[in-house]
Amino acid sequence: MVRLPYLTALTTLFSYGLLFAFGQLRDFFRKLIDWPKSKNLKGYAPICLGLEDFYTRRLYLRIQDCFGRPIASAPDAWIDVVERYSNDNNKTLLRTSNTTKCLNLGSYNYLGFAAADEYCTPRVIESLKKYSPSTCSVRVDGGTTKLHTELEELVARFVGKPAAILFGMGYVTNSAIIPALVGKGGLIISDSLNHNSIVNGARGSGATVRVFQHNNPSHLEEVLREQIAEGQPRTHRPWKKIIVIVEGIYSMEGELCKLPEIIAVCKKYKAYTYLDEAHSIGAIGKSGRGVCELLGVDPADVDIMMGTFTKSFGSCGGYIAASKEIIQYLKYTCPAHLYATSMSPPAVQQVISAIKVILGEDGSNRGAQKLARIRENSNFFRSELQKMGFEVLGDNDSPVMPIMLYNPAKIPAFSRECLRQNVAIVTVAFPATPLLLARARICISASHTREDLIKGLEVISKVGDLVGIKYFPVEPPKHEQDQKKLE
Ligand SMILES: Cc1ncc(COP(=O)(O)O)c(C=O)c1O
Ligand SMILES: *[C@@H]1O[C@H](CO)[C@@H](O)[C@H](O)[C@H]1NC(C)=O
Ligand SMILES: *[C@@H]1O[C@H](CO)[C@@H](O)[C@H](O)[C@H]1NC(C)=O
Predict the structure, then answer these.
(1) Which of 218, 223, 167 is nearest to 190 (CA)?
(2) Where is the Aminotransferase class I/classII large domain (predicted)?
(3) Cα(198)–Cα(306) distance, rounded to whole angstroms?
(4) Which residue is closest in CA terms to ligand 3's atom 12?
């Protein structure tokens, strides 16, 4: 839960108000100046308009140096960030040939597989030589290699489902599968903070979409009961099917899904569950099997398990794991399976190798070590940040930990100052978060050493003091205070 302090809310609103007012004023004058030119449109309506565009021009562009910074290395514990400069107040940013080595607290490299790995990398190189970067074909034509079928079997076994299907992109896995599963006459009930790929998949499906309060099983039950009583719009016929969509770890909140409670509600009302494990698969659970394993949920109770290979496995693509019947149905009907070029073979090999390491099937215990490491690292970093007085969102064991910034001026200040001290941090603002709830998002990796984490904490603490984001200073324990007085 966000604990937005009252005064901060006011100043944040004031800042946005000010930016908005000045932006509008400047837009007004620009329109006056550009008025003679507007005849050039020759009857066409302008293609880019609206408040989002206003936001881009008047807010985002002012701090665009904090986003999309080019990288010149693998996203390991340390990365090379390309230095840029600008001759026009950051309107255009030009690359130099110099790079800065920075501690990487921003990539989803949870298990450290995204950089060279003694087991994965040689196998990926071999598969690149054998299969080339692309199959140049869709799955149902020439795009199914031995590797693709091997990975489908391996993923199914790993997550504990009878079958699985692969897609070239995690985003597409949601946005193309949801419309294949449910359409007109169906009902989707979606967590209010679900990822954009789910939102767009649900919108594109033609089903009725209802949203329940983030991670709130009792509100989910309320919405379900109400919708089942109402039935389909106008006709009030019963829904053809109901699917409840949630995520394992919410990527902007670092929170774990209340899966056991949500499944209990879904079972009671005979709704299917769809679980997006993009950030949780591989990263949490004793053997890396995600939120089901961590929270003691039987995978048989989750109807559709979705995940991506872009985080813990250091590759690209996504999967759906479900019953044989559902997977077969998707293979016959899903356009992203029938009409999109299949996953790149070396990317498939990377996932196969990474899962084998996680399962200990490479003949070492490196997988178990990585899993222990990510948990220790995450819990250490989170508790240290909390002790420093930052407002940190999310749950223990989650490697994602947002630090609340709120004020728009603090976004570039925090990002630039951390970078100056060689710590690369991702800041997130509207539209990825609500306007007032801008944050920095730390992602911890198993490849971080304790020294790395301590360096990161030192810099974040210093910059936090400078920028003024230690919103909840922690009082030292009473006996320490007394001791100080005595001294
Ligand atoms: C919850 C969730 N689902 C899906 C995706 C999309 O996956 P990909 O980035 O692999 O396309 C993401 C990406 O960050 C995500 O966080
Ligand atoms: C441009 O970006 C740099 C950091 O990359 C920053 O120090 C500077 O203040 C920015 N300039 C403006 C006008 O915003
Ligand atoms: C690269 O870094 C060196 C040493 O810090 C500096 O002298 C040089 O000007 C930089 N080059 C560019 C293009 O910024």
Answers:
(1) 223
(2) 101-460
(3) 11
(4) 96
Asked if the structure places residue 479 within a domain, the reply is no
CB of 149 within 6 A of ligand 3: the answer is no
Report the nearest atom of ligand 2 relative to the CA of 90: 1
Task: Read off the DSSP letter of residue 253.
Answer: T
Q: Write out the E strands in 109-202.
A: 163-167, 187-191
* Together in a domain, 19 and 149: no
Whole-number pLDDT of residue 209? 98
Nearest to 298 by CA among 290, 306, 287: 290
Q: Distance between CA atoms of 21 and 16, rounded to whole angstroms?
A: 8
**Domain boundaries, position 286:** 120-359
CATH of the domain at 286: 3.40.640.10
Q: How many domains does the chain have?
A: 2
Per-residue pLDDT tens digits for 20-62: 898 888 888 888 887 777 666 677 877 776 666 777 777 888 8
Of all ligands present, the nearest one to the C-alpha of 96 is 3
- Confirm or reject: Cβ of 98 under 6 Å from ligand 3: yes
The amino acid present at 405, given as its one-letter code, is L
In a domain, 253, yes or no: yes
- Name the closest-CA residue to atom 6, ligand 1: 171
Please indicate, yes or no, whether the overall pTM of this predicted structure exceeds 0.90: yes
Q: What are 199's two structure tokens?
A: 């939102």
- 105 pLDDT above the threshold of 60: yes
Residue 24's CATH number: 3.90.1150.10
Choose one of 84, 87, 96 to mutate for the ligand 3 pocket test, by most ligand atoms within 8 angstroms of C-beta: 96
Quote the DSSP letter at residue 187. E
